[in-house]
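Need a sequence for this fold. Nothing fancy.
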């Protein structure tokens, strides 16, 4: 091969690399940015195993923990509210239990992460250094990606869940309701304390944690939300979120979901500074204007039921016909059994 031809080929290869590398890097980075951004803030990993979680501050008392590389590709959002006056930390959901294929991740316990890993946004200290404060765990609902990390807390801490549908979370139904059976997972073993609508959460010494439980069925019968009146924060689990498909299981109900959304919208609307209320979800969405997110998502679902939102896909999954709807701009999307949409339309289901 002549030297001139080699030079041309080398030049073309370089051009291709310049154009293709940024896109390839962006795709890889988009999967792991939740880890790299936080670690580059100064969290020391010397003599420590790489954790399956990252943490950042949302408010004066509350942190968002993200499980950033789980095997289920769920990337669940876990919320931690630190209340020093009550010597207690409240945790909403416990994620996927650190399950990962990433060989660099060695620290997979959420509790160990909270008690041992330095968090830059917490003055470089763990959220509960040495486990000095007690825990209260609240599960937004019983799906596997929100409960698989619960057992280390259940040994000495109360685990709270919605009392709206005791049958749904009963021991005999729990393996199915949690979707652990469908995925071949061992169902976590723990005692669940069911609490009523408008339950005020308190510490073991009866001090307020500043959070109220709201029954918000629809996504699942046991879905709940937390309302923080002082910080104007609404935590809604998987009732809705942006950018990722909102997935309803067979036990969900769109008519019930609409009723729940109306209640949440009314709650936010009645606040003196409604526009400043923020919403935090079980995936993808945190610290966003609650009223706008609630109203926009509800409108999208209305369009699904009315037929204004076109069907993107219909497919068979585990013997059930499922449907997918997605806005052209991609902000809101829905995946659910077709039966749920037909029931919401008032149509007969075969």
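Here you go.
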């Amino acid at each position: 091969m002549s030297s001139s031809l080699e030079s041309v080929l080398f030049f073309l290869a370089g051009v291709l690399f310049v154009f293709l590398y940024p896109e390839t890097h962006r795709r890889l980075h988009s999967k792991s940015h939740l880890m790299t951004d936080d670690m580059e803030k100064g969290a020391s990993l010397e003599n420590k195993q790489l954790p399956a979680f990252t943490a950042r501050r949302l408010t004066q008392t509350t942190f968002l923990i993200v499980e950033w590389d789980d095997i289920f590709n769920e990337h669940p959002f876990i919320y931690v509210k630190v209340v020093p006056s009550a010597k207690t930390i409240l945790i909403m959901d416990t994620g996927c239990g650190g399950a990962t294929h990433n060989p660099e991740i060695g620290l997979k316990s959420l509790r160990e992460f909270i008690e041992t890993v330095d968090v830059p946004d917490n003055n470089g200290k763990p959220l509960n250094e040495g486990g000095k404060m007690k825990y209260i765990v609240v599960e937004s609902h019983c799906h596997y990606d929100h409960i698989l990390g619960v057992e280390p807390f259940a040994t000495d801490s109360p685990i709270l869940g919605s009392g709206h549908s005791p049958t749904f979370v009963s021991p005999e139904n729990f393996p199915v309701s949690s979707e652990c059976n469908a995925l071949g997972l061992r169902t976590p073993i723990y005692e669940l304390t069911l609490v009523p609508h408008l339950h005020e959460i308190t510490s073991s010494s009866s001090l307020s944690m500043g959070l109220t439980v709201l029954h918000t069925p629809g996504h699942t019968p046991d879905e709940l939300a937390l309302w923080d009146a002082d910080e104007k924060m609404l935590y809604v689990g998987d009732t809705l979120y942006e950018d990722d498909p909102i997935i309803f299981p067979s036990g969900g109900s769109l008519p019930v979901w609409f009723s729940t959304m109306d209640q949440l919208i009314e709650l936010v609307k009645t606040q003196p500074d409604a526009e400043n209320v923020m919403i935090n979800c079980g995936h993808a969405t945190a610290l966003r204007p609650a009223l706008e997110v609630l109203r926009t998502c509800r409108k999208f679902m209305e369009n699904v039921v009315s037929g204004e939102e076109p069907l993107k896909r219909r497919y068979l999954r585990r013997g059930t016909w499922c449907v997918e709807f997605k806005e052209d701009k991609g902000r809101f999307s829905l995946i659910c059994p077709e039966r749920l949409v037909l029931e919401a339309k008032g149509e007969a289901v075969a």
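For context: The radius of gyration is 22 Å.
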